[in-house]
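Researcher: Go.
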Amino acid sequence: QLQLVESGGGLVQPGGSLRLSCVASGFTGDYYASLDWYAIGWFRQAPGKEREAVSCISSNGGVLDYVDSVKGRFTISRDNAKNTVYLQMNSLKTEDTGVYYCAAFRQPPHVQQMCLITNNPPRYDFWGQGTQVTVSS
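Model: Structure:
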């Protein structure tokens, strides 16, 4: 069972930066046995609001996508050798506050690449526990 653990959250002032990490483990079997067999998404949930997708990256890193509100400020990347996906967040705003989750769905690296900037309909099968990001002065 794939396990995802987020880290890197914290309290930052508006205009500041944070880098979130999502480390994967628990690979089993002959297939889907490394992170390059999974597409990854970052989601966030602000207090009193529904969870929303922020960014996604395909299994080989060739396809990226961002929600409009973070374009030009956030950068998603992955290091499959380290089983880690990153979300670099710059120029943070108070509205970026929330719990950030990484999630994964199976996507062999040899198939046509895509990523999903939504989970409706549900496609992400594996979720981390989240890391809190608070942007406040």
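Model: The chain has a mean pLDDT of 94.
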